[in-house]
Amino acid sequence: MGNATQDIENLIELMAKLPGLGPRSARRAVLHMIKKRALIMTPLADVLSEVAVTARECLNCGNVGTSDICDICEADKRATGELCVVEDVADLWAMERAGGFKGRYHVLGGTLSALDAVGPDDLQIPKLRDRVAAEGITEVILALNATVDGQTTAHYIADELEGSGVTVTTLAQGVPIGGELDYLDDGTISAALKARKSF
Amino acid sequence: MGNATQDIENLIELMAKLPGLGPRSARRAVLHMIKKRALIMTPLADVLSEVAVTARECLNCGNVGTSDICDICEADKRATGELCVVEDVADLWAMERAGGFKGRYHVLGGTLSALDAVGPDDLQIPKLRDRVAAEGITEVILALNATVDGQTTAHYIADELEGSGVTVTTLAQGVPIGGELDYLDDGTISAALKARKSF
Q1: How crowded is the C-beta side of A189, counted as CA atoms within 13 Å?
Q2: What is the DSSP string of B122-148?
Q3: Among the three residues A17, A38, A54, which one is the final residue of a domain in this structure?
Q4: Where is the secretion signal located (chains A, B) (predicted)?
């Protein structure tokens, strides 16, 4: 980093720890911030200091927010009896951006993984069972990633909830909007074919 | 961003303005920071607040640091009479990382560009002339990027300094260390051939 004084070097090192940034892009980002001090650096420092203190996980669903119970769990009109199970908070936000879901969420905090020795008790699966009973849930929607671990976890949860009286559903698999068949993997095409609907 | 409360949304928006980050990677970075609060977020907030106040450009060379005159300009032992001219601070840092240069720097703040209407007075070229006279400079090393604008600027500066008594040199062009000929562009190969040396 040459002669950048210690603070600036520390800043670059910390920025380089963020996902998607390496040492080179961290340096670029820091120089950009310093050039745009009033527009980016000062407001970023302020809001970061704020969030570093206030950010917390919702005690109910695991969403990230600035209160003990997140806005979604607080909202009365979202008590629809539908509970959407996601792997992590990024997936929850993706579902919210997509819109269309009016119920509440449950963040697992990962997927079952034999390789990484992640078992059901390392995830929020016991909590899920409790919530299904306590919140009068009628449908659990499994919105897990279409990966091997994601689908293993989905099957495990479906088994766990059997006999509890809730309907367990999962996101449809098929051709993504705007998708071109020639660019899709074979698995997606055959899944879409199997799940074909009358036109 | 769904229900992330306002502060978190602001944080994501500001992060997304950094070069190399978009909305998606900014969200990932923010979630990562929140998960690693003690390790990344709190220290980052502290050092960012610090740097947002203390960062400044060296009044002499244009390097970024936390004092009015940067460490390099302050260091007596770097008054070697050699002045290395670079486009911007990132290039200065790259030179320092490479090591080997013991003189001082001069940051132009860009390159001449007819297209973007950048003339000599928009850059630190008048200042460069002053420093050459005032600091007893004997050699000006042009370490500008090997782009059309960089080389145009180099020629302009060389013309400007003609008659001032300083030697003007430029970085050698040739095959980069570890470079494979088959992957190099034709311009580099012919420049390296023209500048061939006895073995």
Answers
A1: 7
A2: GTTHHHHHHHHHHTT--EEEE---SSH
A3: A54
A4: none
Residues A157-168 pLDDT 10s: 999 999 888 999
Tens digit of each residue's pLDDT (9 = 90 or more) over B135-194: 999 999 999 998 899 999 999 999 999 988 899 999 988 888 888 888 888 888 888 888
Helix-then-strand count for chain B, H and E: 8, 6
Would you say residue B186 lies in a domain?
no
Range of the domain at A110: 78-170
Residue in chain A closest to B63 (alpha carbons) equals A4
Judge if B96 and B162 occupy the same domain: yes
The shortest CB-CB distance from B20 to any of A28, A54, A72 is to A28
Q: What is the pLDDT of residue B1?
A: 42
Both B96 and B133 in a single domain? Answer: yes
Name every chain B residue with its beta carbon within 8 A of the beta carbon of A100: none
Q: Chain B residue with minimal CA distance to A41?
A: B52
Within a domain: B36: yes
ipTM of this complex: 0.84
Residues A40 and A113 in one domain: no
Choose from B15, B51, B61, B96 for mutation: most chain A CBs within 10 A: B51
Q: Are residues A112 and A148 in the same domain?
A: yes
3-class state of residue A175 by DSSP: coil
